[in-house]
Design a protein that fits this description.
79% of the residues lie in helices and 0% in strands. The protein is mainly α. The chain has one domain. The relative contact order is 0.24.
C-alpha cells in the first residue's frame, strides 16, 4: 500500500509537471507577474494557479471510476484519447501566443486568487486528467484504486504543476528578455509537434 501511494504521487507529479509546460493561462500569468512584480508574487500566483488541479484531477478520477464499470469501453477510449492528443497538438501549433495585455489587470496582493481563477478557467485540465488516468489504467500502470492511492495521485497533480510554476518564476526573473521575446512566441508550436508525434506513436501501439 505504501509503495502504491508513493508511486501514484511520483507518477502524478511527473505527469503534471510535464503537462503544465505548455504556455497556457497560468504560465503566462506567472511570467507576467515575474516580469512586472517580483519572484515572490509570481510564486504565489503559480501556487494559486496549481490549486484547481485538485478539482479537475479529482473529477477525472471519479469519471474514470465510473467508466471502468463498463467492460470493454476502456479499449475504445485508447483510440479516443489518441485522437484527442492529435487534435490538441494541432491546436497548439495553430494557436497564437497570448498577448501580454491580457495579464495587466492584476492588483497588488491578489496573486493567489488571480492564479486560482486562471487555473479554474483552463478548459484543458479536466480532459487532460481524464485522458491520463484512463491511459494509465488501460495500460496497467495505475491499478490500485484504493482511496489513499487516489488522494496521493491528486496531491501529485498539484505538486507537479506548482514545481513547474516555481521554475517558471525563477527562470523568468533571471532571463527576462529571453522569456518575453523568444519563448512565448515559439514554444507552443514545438510542443504541438511533440504531442502529435506521441499520438501517432500511440496509434501504432494500439493497432
Amino acid at each position: 500500500m505504501i509503495w502504491s501511494i508513493i508511486e501514484a504521487l511520483i507518477i502524478a507529479t511527473a505527469i503534471s509537471f510535464a503537462g503544465s509546460v505548455q504556455l497556457g493561462p497560468v504560465n503566462f500569468g506567472t511570467i507576467h507577474t515575474a516580469l512586472h512584480k517580483n519572484k515572490k508574487a509570481a510564486i504565489i500566483f503559480g501556487f494559486g494557479g496549481s490549486l484547481p488541479e485538485l478539482l479537475y484531477c479529482g473529477l477525472a478520477i471519479g469519471s474514470s471510476n465510473f467508466i471502468a464499470q463498463y467492460e470493454g469501453f476502456e479499449n475504445y477510449l485508447k483510440y479516443l484519447t489518441t485522437g484527442v492528443l492529435f487534435l490538441f497538438g494541432i491546436y497548439l501549433i495553430l494557436q497564437k501566443a497570448a498577448s501580454e495585455h491580457k495579464y495587466k489587470s492584476q492588483k497588488k496582493g491578489n496573486e493567489l486568487w488571480l492564479g486560482a481563477t486562471f487555473g479554474l478557467l483552463n478548459p484543458q485540465l479536466y480532459p487532460f486528467w481524464l485522458f491520463i488516468i484512463t491511459y494509465l489504467r488501460t495500460n496497467s500502470i495505475l491499478e490500485n484504486d484504493m482511496w489513499p492511492v487516489q488522494v496521493a495521485f491528486v496531491v501529485g497533480s498539484v505538486l507537479g504543476a506548482f514545481l513547474l510554476q516555481l521554475l517558471v518564476a525563477e527562470f523568468t526573473t533571471r532571463k527576462r528578455e529571453f522569456i518575453y521575446l523568444r519563448l512565448t512566441k515559439n514554444y507552443n508550436k514545438v510542443l504541438g509537434v511533440v504531442i502529435i508525434t506521441i499520438a501517432i506513436f500511440q496509434l501504432f501501439i494500439n493497432s
